[in-house]
């Protein structure tokens, strides 16, 4: 569509300037010191939605961070797309590993470097600019609703309540999200699912106080050593997870489905070089694509205890801790998996220590129905602007609210992400390609066009 192209070419620089302005707001949801910034960010999103042509735009308060809602209903008889995204970001630390300030965006090698550039400000903002393109050129093919939240990176607990309380307002035909990755701009892909998540924390307590490691060491169990052994025992020699019942509900894919996934381009040498590792690791019998897409995993996110300050201190710590998460696949249930983890962790603990297990949060896995007209619309949109059909892929990450969209609103979700796995999400030097940003803005209007046409 030439009018879209012309509008986007004319406004290209402003689109980017506005994104950079959003990226300057440190909307870190996990850290309450940033609460005023999170609020400011919600207000900025509200303003941008209004300028783009949305109506009934509102910053909706919650028990936590606010949700920004806006809509443009051109005709109630036409289909409605609910666009979801998140304006909150992960903490930026460790700060010393950034080459430039996480909230002082810079453009280098055609990429925007800043926390949130890819996850998810740069991606949800493509939808705001795609909507602006359609609304300012009077070419909106269907109705659109926006729900941009501020707690995705901390589990979306309040969004779950919001959608239960706003079913009428959120009525739509499909949910559209750009918060995942593609293989590359040369090899566009479309995610057909997300993994679920179960996030736990464990505490192991030995003696009732820190002890002199010379006086007591050798006679009393060291909780740090015990915790390491317990964690190590959770993978066997084939890197299978040893928690009893963990795999019971895992849905195995047919050989044809596995072959289709493995047909995606993957360069192992490049992958290893990018990560600086000499060898890959993982569950025996599965490829890297499968290990990060269709298989469940268990990871230690952090482990601590005892003395970790400057210099040395000879101490046998009283306590040791770890944050452990598990990525889940269909049909694993995150509550059940959390319980299995807890029971197993308590069972394998030796009598020399006491353990405490708590659940942080979780979410269910999701699979996109590839026969849905919205999936076809996404396919055709990518075909239209990339000149190539997208490769279907499973996303390894989690967006827990997606399963709730289905459960509470009866809505399927299309995951049309434009990021790259190498964008350093949640890491120092997060980045987002300028080409990815503009390609997304170009592609999204076609989704709406084809979805409206296929809905007829
Ligand atoms: N955008 C990511 C999820 C993602 C990234 C999906 C890459 C697929 C590919 C999202 O913001 C995220 O980081 N989610 C968290 C879960 C949340 C409960 C903290 C995750 O996956 O760790
Ligand atoms: Mn995200
Ligand atoms: Mn994230």
Automatic annotation (TrEMBL):
Recorded GO MF terms: metal ion binding; peptidase activity
Coiled coil: none
Keywords on record: Hydrolase, Metal-binding, Protease
CDD domains tied to this protein: M20_dipept_like
InterPro entries reported for this sequence: Cyt/Met_Dipeptidase, Peptidase_M20, Peptidase_M20_dimer
GO biological process: proteolysis
Domain Peptidase M20 dimerisation: residue ranges: 193-351
Name assigned to this protein: Peptidase M20
């Amino acid at each position: 569509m030439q009018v879209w192209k012309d509008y986007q070419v004319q406004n290209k620089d402003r689109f980017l300037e506005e994104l950079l302005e959003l990226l300057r707001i440190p909307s870190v949801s996990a850290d309450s010191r940033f609460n005023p910034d999170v609020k400011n960010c919600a207000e900025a999103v509200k303003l941008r939605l209004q300028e783009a042509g949305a109506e009934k735009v509102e910053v909706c308060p919650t028990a936590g961070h606010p949700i920004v809602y806006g809509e443009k209903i051109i005709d109630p008889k036409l289909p409605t797309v609910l666009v979801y995204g998140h304006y909150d970001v992960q903490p930026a630390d460790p700060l010393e590993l950034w080459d430039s300030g996480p909230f002082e965006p810079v453009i280098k090698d055609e990429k925007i470097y800043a926390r949130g550039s890819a996850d998810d400000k740069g991606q949800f903002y493509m939808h705001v600019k795609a909507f602006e393109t359609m609304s300012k050129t009077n070419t909106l093919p269907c109705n659109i609703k926006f729900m941009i939240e501020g707690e995705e990176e901390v589990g979306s607990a309040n969004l779950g309540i919001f959608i239960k309380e706003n079913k009428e307002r959120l009525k739509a035909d499909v949910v559209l999200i750009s918060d995942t990755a593609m293989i590359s701009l040369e090899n566009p892909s479309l995610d057909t699912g997300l993994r679920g998540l179960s996030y736990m924390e464990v505490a192991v307590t030995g003696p009732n106080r820190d002890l002199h490691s010379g006086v007591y060491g050798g006679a009393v169990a060291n909780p740090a050593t015990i915790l390491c052994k317990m964690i190590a025992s959770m993978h066997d020699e084939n890197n299978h997870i040893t928690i009893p019942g963990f795999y019971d509900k895992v849905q195995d894919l047919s050989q044809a489905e596995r072959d289709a996934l493995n047909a995606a381009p993957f360069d192992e040498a490049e992958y290893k070089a990018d990560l600086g590792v000499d060898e890959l690791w993982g569950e025996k019998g599965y490829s890297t694509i499968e290990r990060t897409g269709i298989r469940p995993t268990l990871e230690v996110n952090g482990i601590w205890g005892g003395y970790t300050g400057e210099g040395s201190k000879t101490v046998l710590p009283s306590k040791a801790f770890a944050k452990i998460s598990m990525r889940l696949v269909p049909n694993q249930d995150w509550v059940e998996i959390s319980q299995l983890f807890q029971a197993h962790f308590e069972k394998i603990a030796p009598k020399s220590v006491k353990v405490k297990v708590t659940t942080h949060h979780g979410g269910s896995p999701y699979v996109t129905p590839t026969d849905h007209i919205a999936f076809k619309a996404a396919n055709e949109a990518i075909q239209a602007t990339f000149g190539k059909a997208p490769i279907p892929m499973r996303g390894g990450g989690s967006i827990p609210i997606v399963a709730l969209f289905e459960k509470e609103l009866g809505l399927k979700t299309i995951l049309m992400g434009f990021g790259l796995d190498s964008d350093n999400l949640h890491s120092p030097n997060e980045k987002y390609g300028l080409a990815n940003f503009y390609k997304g803005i170009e592609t999204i209007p076609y989704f709406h066009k084809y979805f409206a046409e296929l809905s007829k």
